[in-house]
């Protein structure tokens, strides 16, 4: 069974999300809606969808998403029962009508591949529901490092809503609390994969909305995103560089080298030296020291 988790806060596009759940060609799922103390009550809207699909609604008394978006995700997951598979669907995102059916149609192959993560094709839509990107499809089986690298090099996109993951790996790893949850999903797929392949379904899509109300669409949160990125790449370098190819490791380390030259923090210098010694070579470490000398 699949549990669809919706951390709710915005009413603006919520009906389109609910309509997409009603329109699923099979109803073999249960929806858990966790209201993050929103000032916009969805109760009247939810009344329209009673009996259309199986859902549970809970309003939290305190807003948590403004403090920690990942903690809001996690307390919404706690509303669910014991479904083996989980999906966190944004309150402004939309599923194609065949999304749930294609998941179950591929479940035997997913189990045979021992995949912990399933990913749909995705497309970005605007405030009016119009597509503003291509449909991003993926290799049927792909390791998490290659998947992230395609995103990093702008060959694909990735966000939270288009993924399904096993409860077992979620319970083991949870989400890392970065500012705005920026990159929290990227790190989750690396950890949740547990070094097994991500299984992709390209015959169904998740339509991910970018608007002035969404984190990705806002322009006043640059510093928070930058801080989250620094934390994320530091985590990658500390714990997961070994899963990347050498040329990829050098790019990740270079991101943090640039941060060092901006802030000149001694603790980051020590880490960069350690990462080069463990994951690079003396030649690239010497290049780093030469940059330090030139920029002294």
From TrEMBL:
InterPro entries xrefs: Glyco_trans_2-like, Nucleotide-diphossugar_trans
Molecular-function GO terms, alphabetical: hexosyltransferase activity
CDD domains per record: Glyco_tranf_GTA_type
Coiled-coil residue windows: none
Domain Glycosyltransferase 2-like: 4-134
Top-rank taxon, per record: Bacteria
One Pfam family matching this protein: Glycos_transf_2
Keyword annotations from UniProtKB, A to Z: Transferase
Protein name: Glycosyltransferase family 2 protein
Lineage: Bacteria, Pseudomonadati, Bacteroidota, Flavobacteriia, Flavobacteriales
């Amino acid at each position: 069974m699949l549990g669809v988790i919706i951390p709710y806060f915005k009413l603006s596009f919520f009906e389109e999300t609910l309509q997409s759940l009603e329109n699923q060609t099979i109803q073999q799922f249960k929806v858990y809606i966790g209201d993050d103390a929103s000032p916009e009550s969805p109760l009247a809207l939810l009344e329209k969808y009673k009996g259309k699909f199986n859902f549970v609604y809970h309003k939290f008394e305190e807003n948590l998403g403004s403090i920690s978006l990942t903690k809001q995700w996690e307390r919404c997951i706690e509303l669910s029962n014991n479904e083996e598979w989980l999906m966190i669907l944004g309150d402004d995102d939309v599923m194609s009508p065949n999304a749930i059916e294609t998941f179950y149609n591929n479940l035997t192959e997913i189990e045979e591949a021992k995949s912990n993560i399933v990913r749909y094709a995705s497309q970005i839509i605007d405030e009016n529901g119009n597509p503003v990107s291509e449909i991003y499809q993926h290799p049927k089986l792909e390791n998490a490092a290659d998947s992230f690298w395609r995103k990093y090099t702008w060959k694909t996109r990735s966000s939270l809503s288009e993924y399904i993951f096993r409860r077992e790996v979620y319970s083991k790893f949870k989400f890392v609390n970065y500012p705005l949850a920026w990159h929290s999903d990227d790190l989750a797929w690396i950890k949740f994969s547990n070094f097994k392949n991500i299984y992709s379904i390209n015959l169904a899509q998740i339509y991910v909305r970018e608007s002035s109300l969404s984190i990705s669409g806002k322009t006043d949160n640059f510093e928070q995103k930058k801080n989250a990125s620094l934390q994320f790449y530091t985590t990658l370098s500390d714990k997961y560089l070994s899963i990347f190819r050498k040329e990829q490791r050098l790019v990740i380390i270079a991101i943090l080298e640039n941060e060092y030259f901006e802030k000149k923090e001694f603790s980051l210098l020590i880490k960069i030296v350690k990462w080069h010694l463990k994951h690079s070579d003396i030649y690239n470490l010497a290049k780093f020291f030469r940059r330090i000398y030139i920029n002294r």
